[in-house]
Predict the structure.
Amino acid sequence: MISNQVLSEVEFNVVGKRPLRPDGVDKVTGRAQYGDDTNLTGTLRAKVLRSPHPHARIKSIDTSKAEAFPGVRAVVTAKDLPFASLSKDELGGEYTALKYASDHMLASDKALFKGHPIAALAAVNAHVAESALALIQVEYEVLKPVVDVREAMKDDAPLIHEDLRTNDMGETGDKPSNIATHMSYSTGDIDKGFAEADLVMENEYTTATVHQGYIEPHNTTAFWNSDGQLNIWTSTQGSFQVRGTVAGVLRIPVSQVKVIPMEIGGGFGGKITAYLDAICAVLSKKTGAPVKALMTRTEVFEASGPAPASWMRVKIGVKNNGKMTAVEAEIAMDAGAYPGSPAMQAIVCAFACYDVENGKVDGYDVVDNKPKTAAYRAPGSPQAAFAVESLIDEICGELKMDPIDFRLLNAAKEGTRRIEGLVARRIGLVECLEAARDHDHYKAKLDEGIGRGVACGYWPNRGFQSSVVMTVNYDGVVSLIMGSVDIGGTRASIAQQAAETLGIAYEDVKPTVVDTDSIGYTFITGGSRTAFATGLAAINAAEDVKSQMVSRAAKIWDTDEDDIEYVAGIVQHKSDEELKFTFKDLARQLATTGGSISGRASVDPTGEGNGYAVHIVDVTVDPDTGKTDVTRFTAVQDAGKAVHPSYVEGQMQGGAVQGIGWALNEEYFFDDSGKMMNPTFLDYRMPTSLDLPMIDTVIVEVANPGHPYGVRGVGEASIVPPMAAIGNAVHAATGHRMRSLPITPGRILEAGWENGRS
Amino acid sequence: MPGVTHVQSTLNGEVINFLCEPRQSLLEVLRDVLGMTGTKEGCNDGNCGACTIILDGRIVDSCLVLGVEAEGREMMTIEGMASAEGLHPLQQSFLENAALQCGICTPGFLLASKSLLDQEPDADEGRIRHWLAGNLCRCTGYDKIIRAVMQVSTAK
Amino acid sequence: MEPFDFVSPTTIEEAVKTLASAGDQARILAGGTDLLVQMRAGRRTAPLVVDIKGIPELNVLSYDASKGLTLGAAVPCYKIYEDETVAKVYPGLIDAAFLIGGIQIQGRASIGGNICNAAPSGDAIPAVIALRGVCNVAGPNGTREILCEDFCTAPGQNALKNGEILVSISIPAPQANSGANYLRFIPRNEMDIAVVGVGTSVQLDASGQNFVSARIALASVAPTPVFATEAGDSLAGKAVSEEAIQQASELAMAAAKPISDMRGTIRQRIHLIGVFTRRTLNIAIERARGG
């Protein structure tokens, strides 16, 4: 039995190999510097006072006692942010955006979720800061909260923002509402499609609020120097995002802010939003000292950005032969305190695995009294896939059709037009389904008591801007700097692409992640984009190096550049075989022939990488306790080209396991007053090593036409299928169709009792 | 300001002296007083294992030990795992097996794995999974971590 | 965390004196795996923390076939399950010691601390009740014994009076043909709080076919651990049979008075008490038969 397979069609010299990561030794010896390891001389510690109420009007804040507490150096509230002194007239169209951004950092008029920052202070150490927080007196008018997406959509729901009106496909609603946006997309004629169907099935599904669960809490250190320069050392997926957010909220030019990205202890989309940076910056300005903050785990749960809970209704029509004729879905997602749930991504992804002529999807972005949600690995897609892939399993059951055959019959392929209008380029879903169908796991006999489920999933994998600069050292080693922070091995995968393009050894490329002053704008590490887009920047920068190396050789040989070619790391004269430099030989000549060579590239690739995944899972369910154990798991995914297969497998396995947690145990519990009851790793139950089998992988490689080596990006699609795959497996094992996540032991027992079994 | 206590203990083979307040955890002392930042804070309540150290031969969560409790005791942190001769076989195995992505949980996993294999060199997959259940990793799904430890174990 | 003073007495007398003079201002620190979490979360405050790990009597782990087990209140879990004699004689105790937290927690946490913490979900408590454990307490007025089933008085509260400390737990030597087991239900496989827990011990007759006596105790189904005497007593004198076990499990279910919270509902918990009473009884019976 092979645990990890790579189905390659094209071999390269460096791309596709498994070298050691450049930052590896530092990370296994404890020397790597993560955000909270920053320790500047004289650093003060900040703590944030947070609202104990999910929904309350702030009537007054008295910080005088805290300010007088020994060891406290400064206190800030929303009054210290520029927004407080700007009028609606001055801000014009910027008003709402700045109010939301500013209030999210420090609430000015209302607390919108439990954990909402109300004030912060800097003190000589964290214990003193914590003690002093208790001395800040806040008078609240407690308001009725709403923490359920469907409740929040009702006409009589408590209003989160009194002035928010629904944007309904460009039209503004006539009264305040918690529905920030209604999106609607359709293609073909769904009435006709459903009329043509032999079988139409429809059901409702819900998923709970879940957290990314990165192990490193949010942290930052800010130092606002007396010369006006603001430096921020932080753990982030996007140093340029932090720079932009801080500059925006503090109303200063971006060039006044330098963000130094430290090593990051996990993000999964949750470390894009800047929560602490502006607060520490203002405290630093007030004190003249560096100010550092580290969230507690409870703060991370209550006040960073979890993924939305959702309500979905899905309807699918099929012919008796399994061909889908029409699909329809309504998807409501709670954005938390401020608009911005991934409802649009859910619309894009919901039916992206299927080639169906008639479809309509409606999405609702809804605010409620939860922390503002953030991205979480393929944001929006896992929820939608849980609903769609569960219903498809029910349809396969009705039609007595193999679930992979059904999906092969309807699979999206090159030329398939999605409901929102995009037409697919070459994609690899069919190949993934075939690999799953042909896998040992899918063919293995089902032992008594085991249920098997399959599901597929999609994530677009976008491009966006990336910058890379490479310098050729005189010893032939290339220094590569980039703005993409490395969460899971991208230093290696970017260096591999550079080495491949230059025709030199992987070891001869030294990658470094640098600060925002040292490289051009680079979008976040997220969206499965880094290996693809920053890789593309590295390839282009390498091409720049190659052409300059050719020029230099031309100068040395006193010949025309057109007479010289660069082949596999050798610069050679096209007709004179005597004239030939290896990369290193030529590098040695640089110092005396005009100096160093630097290649650079900034890219902004358009189009989608299109990541598809298919998962197979076996489970057992204890009929007496309702507890599900995952006994075997196989993840299949189209990587386009796996630059470093070990880290591609790691992404597939990690995403699958986050999905297993989402499927079985993870959820935010809220009490009647809207407060989260389980903000600890004890009660927010993420899988441990003892809860899992090995996660087998199959890397499928259908080249992405938008990348020289075919790279698609791999970070996200793997979290999309597990919830439905597990739900389908639980159904196979128990006969219970679970339409709400998580599928807890208690819910399975309840389903048994409802179905008259116990 | 509250009083401080003088503590003498052994850290990675060296006798050390430090001052701390009773309320400071050993994790805080290691990171903030001694500058040994290889030990990581993940939850500060004993549920993630990122701050795992070896105390008198046993792994503990250093967030649940007071600094003053280190008096007269021997501690080993990640900084003490490699030697001048090179990486510990587990460190090498973690590198070769790509058993880390973000790396924040890695020091805790390495020390926990070391303490297991020191005690049970032939630990098998089931035993390794059980022993490491107090260490959370959110990136890898544990697969490559378990394989990295299995590679160093003498179990066949 | 608010500042506190820290002392580490080396004798029981010194500890008792310190605690008695501090009144309710002091907290006892053993493994710290509950106390430090609670203090950090602001659920407990203590201007004085008294570390009792330096007191020899609290570190005793000794077994004598006539006197049974003396388990010092500060002995960490790993020392209990790594002691070959204790592991052999008291597998029902090992079940609990092996379940409390992960390996890191077991390096510090003690059975004594688990009992004193008095959580309704404390894994060690039903196991010790089932094994007829007795808590040996020292205080300003000398020593006294408290049955384990009487030790917890409310969530987080125990029977210790001002100045008293739990020194050790005594567990009688197992009778012939006896066996014990503790099982809990958690949604994951480790690192969780018991949704329910059941500890049982049984004594069979020489044939191994009839119950002489049985004790059943429950976790997480009432404000304190529940000693389900009727359930255990129902087995005395009966033949070992599915019916008898079923009946005992129903009596255990009747003794459970749980609440619904995020960890489980009333119906789920009562149902699970039935399931786990049956499972633990079957394991205890198997162990009693020498299996």
